[in-house]
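Teaching note: in complex prediction, the entire set of molecules is handled at once rather than each chain in isolation. The prompt given to students was simply: 'Predict the structure of this complex.' The entities are:
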Amino acid sequence: MKLHSQIALSIAFLLSSTIAHAQLACVSGKSSHTNMVLQMHNAKSASAITEAIYKQYKLGTSTQAQAGCVGCSASVAKRPDGIAQVASAIEGIPQAPKLLFNPQCLQGSNNFEAEVGQVSCPSGQRSKSTNLCQTEEILNYQNATISSFISCSKKLGLPTISPSVLYGIYSLESGFKPQYSSRNGLGMGQLTNIFVQDVHQKWRGGENLRKMAQSDLQECSAAKILAQKDLKSKPRHSNSCSFIQIGEGMERNILYTMIGLATSWEKDISPKMNSYLTKYANHPSIEEIKSLLMANAYGSGGRAAARALANRLSGLPPEKLLATIKKPISGVPMRGRARTLNGYTLKIATRQKDIASKLKEPLKSAFEKEGAKACVTQ
Amino acid sequence: MRYSIILTALLASVSYATTPKEVAGIYLNFETKKLELLKADFDKKTAKDKVVPAYQALEKALADVKNIESKSKDDLLTAEGNQMAYDLEILAPIKDLAAGLMSKEDCDKARHEHALNFPVVEDEDSTAIAKAIDKLCN
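The expected output is the structure of the full assembly:
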């Protein structure tokens, strides 16, 4: 790049960051900690993945008002759903697909704070004293990215988790904070190294990654870019920003969660429950059961615990199974502690109770009544 | 080793009041056999004959517990049955390895499956299983 264009870019960058800082309204974090806001800004102008997601969900246009409109103009944001749809029809703009979650729910979850490090990108610097500002625009973009990858997975016929349970996973793992990094986990889904390896193993998640890379579906336009890139060169878990930075890393984090969940269902859980799934294929609770078992395999308890849980519960009829899985299912205490096979789903349930208090009416009452299902728009 | 068995026996004897005595007995035997399997002297040549039947005996023990549980009125899931189901899962990579050709690919799979079983915290079992896999793969 020539010197004068580099200078021009730097001036534009400095100007935009100054403007962003002046106008920043953080949902969480400090307005002076602008690293993520700058990541978002750069991704919008330089990332093909971000461009594909913005295009797919028409982010920043009036049609996104239908999903509660965060990150778009205030005048449009105030329009009720019906009016927004009429407005978009008059304006001749096609309706965007709905975002998966009510934006208020992401904001409610985002108020959660954990004593973990936060990673700034692209430097990869990790600090516990940093509290990066997260804006409505970033949350809206996460919402669109999740929506895009779920929609792609469904179209490809991959097993998908119910959105309400997925909301529970992200609320527990990071509170939708892509910059979070614990000792073993990275980013929104707190991906561990072995989880990342699993996505790439040819006898495990590799097949699903390849399906995404080879897809020509419109719903998979963003996922395809990432999958193709990663099949050429496997990202390293030790490079934190590969799973955190907005524009590629955060999106990869979400994509790998989708692929990892699908893989654990196909390879770990479903084989333990074949006859059960056939017997109760049309039962109204079967999808909820599948999602809870899938989520449990995602947790830090490990796949052995998840498979053992499936083994133990597969003798119970669906109603009884659903009631049982909501209580601790533990092994024999050893040195005063017993392993709980469903510890992860129990933790999700506990976090959900905390989130309800962060929401405003009427969503709060709906959340208290039906849990995270109240957050799902589709 | 001896300490572990005594501790397990003590814990099993005072564990859940809802656990039928038969289940506690089966579990105690299961735990002893499991520890024997982990400490067993096997190599690539003898693994199939030593590991696979031992694992099948453990599976049979869980089936026996499930059978007892199924006779209870309230769909009882005993702590012993839960523990046995978990132990069988963590031992599965050794059994799969022993039952196969123990090729490099088989070894990669076994190590990967083992790592998935213990993504965050390792414990005594995890270390013993990793050693057993190494015994068949190195």
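Point out the following to students. Residues 65-86 of chain A have pLDDT under 50 and may be disordered. The radius of gyration of chain A is 21 Å.
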